[in-house]
User: What shape does this take?
Amino acid sequence: MEHAETKSGNGAVALLKALHAGGARICFANPGTTELTLVDALADVPEIRSVLALFEGVCTGAADGYARVSGQTPLTLLHLGPGFGNGIANLHNARRARSAIVTIIGDHASWHLPYDAPLTSDIESLASPVSVAVVRMRDPQAIGTDVARVLEAAAGAPGGPTTLIVPTDIMDVQVDPVTVPVAPPARRTVGAAHIDKAAEFVTGAQDLILLLGGDALTEQGQRAAADIVAKVGGRVLMEPYPAIVPLGGDLPPIERQAYFPEDVIRQMGEARVVLAGALKPISYFGYEGFPSQLVPDERLLCLSDPAEAGVAALEALAARLDGAVAAPAAKAPRRPTARAPDAPLSADMIVDSLVQQLPDDAIISLEGSTLGGPWLRNAGHARRHRVMTNTGGAIGQGLPCAVGAALAAPGSRVVSLQSDGSGHYTVQSLWTMAREKLPVTIIIAANHRYGILQTELNRVEAPLEDPVIASLTRLDNPRADWTALAAGYGVEAVRVTTAGEFDAALARGLSHDGPLLIQAELP
Amino acid sequence: MEHAETKSGNGAVALLKALHAGGARICFANPGTTELTLVDALADVPEIRSVLALFEGVCTGAADGYARVSGQTPLTLLHLGPGFGNGIANLHNARRARSAIVTIIGDHASWHLPYDAPLTSDIESLASPVSVAVVRMRDPQAIGTDVARVLEAAAGAPGGPTTLIVPTDIMDVQVDPVTVPVAPPARRTVGAAHIDKAAEFVTGAQDLILLLGGDALTEQGQRAAADIVAKVGGRVLMEPYPAIVPLGGDLPPIERQAYFPEDVIRQMGEARVVLAGALKPISYFGYEGFPSQLVPDERLLCLSDPAEAGVAALEALAARLDGAVAAPAAKAPRRPTARAPDAPLSADMIVDSLVQQLPDDAIISLEGSTLGGPWLRNAGHARRHRVMTNTGGAIGQGLPCAVGAALAAPGSRVVSLQSDGSGHYTVQSLWTMAREKLPVTIIIAANHRYGILQTELNRVEAPLEDPVIASLTRLDNPRADWTALAAGYGVEAVRVTTAGEFDAALARGLSHDGPLLIQAELP
Assistant: This one.
């Protein structure tokens, strides 16, 4: 256990210094009046970088992206219950991603709360569903222990977003130096007996799938999984919505768990499935006629749960298995789409172009099925990069996650592969990209419809052409002009309709000093 | 008690028909996969109008505006916990406005919930803080009673937003015809003994203030209050943030309760204060050195609380008082700001121009202090109109509230007086305005800063020029181009910098067939 001590000051300064001592380096802020003492304190603690956003969902999504890429614990600063409300969707995703975040909410002075002023609300009730810990500060002398509680819960195993409610009267008082007992979290080790059991399970399998998720999806985990299937046969899959996964370059091939239950059932076949950091395969939604759990328990073995050390478990299992290591599994050959420069643009063409052009060590923020599925089927052929996906299904994640990724990895190019419908929810992200001059290339898949809703309605044979159904699933009246939206927020933009235009725009975006948005018109 | 009966169909159709039978006529929707059976059902129940928005906060804010203007109960259709989360800020305001709303949330099939699929969340915990009732449907045969519960709670006295959680397995089953016991809510009548007590309180006052809020702020309530002060002397005030208040034309003068505690204390002086539909005057935030409650109980009398019939109470009190009715209080003379057409634009010039040009029966959606305070000090000089204010302090209300108002009052011109900082939170409202061709004139007070935060920081003498504080309160790097944002969402727009340009743009906007946005540059 380390100990860090802060100097004296008011409660707000002491709080920020304690968070800094515990590892916080950045604060995504959209403050209001009850946070102004903290705003003032941020001026006294410049070692925590302040980044302003025009909407709270940008703050929480950016914190999520920052946490995924850096492995550190960023802060957000939000205004009371309603401001927090706007951050809930992306904190829902962050909780599924197990991203370490501390959200600070300034609350009314404790003596003012009983009067039920207009902005008073039940913050605990709002915060609990998306927080692994909610702490209300009550004693200025307890700042160190309160900070330690949220930091340990956030960065714990498995960890996740936490909420720290700070009444203004705690921030205003002078406090003594604060000691922060920082206890670095540790994942539980999987025991040798369980590795033996897993070895028996995999060697007895006719068909084997290693399903990786969480920490097991790192490069080291993927290579250990490849070693295992090289010894005993089988396939390596990733969970359907990873928080962050390295792909491409010389990494071994990895397949993604499918979306619809019938596809998962077909994909899994009769294989035995080993879970390393991944959850049991379940259906994304409950569909009449399909089970919720898509592989029965008797064909499942959990090698490591999300709170356990998955990489070490995979390596121990690989070492435990007999047999010479065979040649690593080969990637399927790449078949680029046939195209002419003036061919109307398609999702596959976008993916082909990006496979060619993506620079080393790029980070892709992926939201929406139009480009998401095609990219994850082809990412193995690109240069080495990392992909963040929408872990919790709350839309409006892609653009802010790209903001956070760019701030966490200043040397990397960030590409936002973004469906247009979901892009609108946090469109204000563009302003923070322009303000911070972030090297983000935003590709808007502009098909002007809620494609996933049409896909799901087709499944149940609903009449897509019915005027009411069409009005609730099509976004073509009017069509949003993303180049104008980008200009409104200070981001350069270009609209493309052909393969050739897209190739050129992407080349320009990937070398652009700052954000550039490409509105890619799709059918 | 009325009864309405629906025809048979699946649960979703039965639910919508029951809501229609109970008075619902419009649904502001941003649906996802768990709402698709309801989307399909909306096609079968076209008597409920479906209006799509690109963001949930637009749906809830529009429902709030619709409820305030129409007095009816609109629906919103939102997607699970995260989609609901994006609607919380404006439901917070709607709860303070006591607006009757039923929010429908499709949830996973009840048998799928235990598997904790990605979008699963604790909807009840999220909904409770902003709902006067939360009902989870569990039995398709109970649709009628569940609908009656939310409709009665929503339109009750005082009423407010309600949440109806509908699992997909309730929507999919065939159900028998549904009977909806619709019990129109009634406000409690204030008894004669209490009127006597109030008469004694007001006649014994050296100085008297009638503080009106809620239902007492109708024309009838304002005229009854004017009768009272004409008999016994005193002033009529309105609560600081009315849900909706008629002003201008031949209505008697009415002053607004101030914002800062020192101003309220000065405004109230030593007066006895009678509350009709208004809450006790309290400080908006807790400030060290000021009490939370700004008028002591011994100088307060509550004539009617928000659940009581305030207008009838005021009329009874007026009738109970002796003395001939004096001449009604005269409005203060109007002093327009001196101006030349090429003078740089100011907030006062905008207000002057609007006082001159506002047409009869317009509705103003007011958000932000830049234009809000000046308008409410001058509204009495304009033609007869109604003003909606931000009741709960959750920002991002103004634009969506204007959407709802325009749909509720098709013959009226709607003017959105909107600060730029708060406008960004629900900027997607512009798309729905364009789509529905709503006659909304949007005036963006573009000072490119969070003015209220700077005002509050000035109070505590914080250094506004400090780089960190400046970066968290100024929006000038980059400056948003609202004409481009409007174009992006299909709305015509113009940027003005002088009084003359503003006058011309306003004239154009007020006669424009559809929405027009004026970016009014202010210092």
